[in-house]
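QA checklist item 7 of 12: single-chain prediction sanity check.
[x] sequence parsed
[x] length recorded as 242
[x] structure emitted
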Amino acid sequence: MQCLAKHGHFLPGNMQGLTEEQIEELKYKDEYEKICVPQGGSVECEDPIGRRTGKAPNEAMAEVLMKTITDAKEMVSNKLTASNTVLTLATVQDALDRLKGAVMIVYPMKLPPYDPVQMEFDNEEDLSGTQASLEVIEQGALWWAGKELLPEKLLSDYVGKNEKTKVIVKLTKKGSSAPGREQVMSEEEKKQMMAWQYRKQEEMKKLHEADDGDDYYNSPWANSNNLKNQFHGIGNIKWGPK
């Protein structure tokens, strides 16, 4: 939907990636160009990959779409766990309905049936062969601590009956192997640790440069092998020219 707000609706498949000269030469025509006009008129904003018309909604209508997108993302965000808010199917449907409503406000005549946004609303989008298809899980399995959580068992069978126990469960496709384990430290914690080590290293460097009271470590009497060297007759060996 961000692309819809920036570059307008989708072009027909036979016009995507072509220049205006090529479209005119081949006499292709977008039959929805004059039908799917955004409320309040459009502004020119060319799509760099040539998949959309480049006739974007005006600033006010684009803001309606972008704000609704932000609100919908917050409704289904993984940050809900911090406030102990349960994400339900009803909440997901509510977010989807808000997106539909925003599109209807901006495009009262609806989008072309081949536009991915409209296809998603109609539950007809085909993700075969796309990167997005890897994010869709039709039949899933839950994993925790390298164990698959079977639906016929209770969660307490795996983690005990302490209600304050916090577990991180991962979702994978049914039949796939166990997912990778969680990192011991987050990226933010790694950055903080590296910053602390750097500060400590700089402090030690400054102390070493400022403190000259450790020179006695180089004195003969501070040598723990001094007695042994005397027995072997190698107590006063020096290297280099006199």
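[x] summary fact logged: Strands lie at 42-44, 55-57, 140-144, 147-149, 170-173.
[ ] second reviewer sign-off
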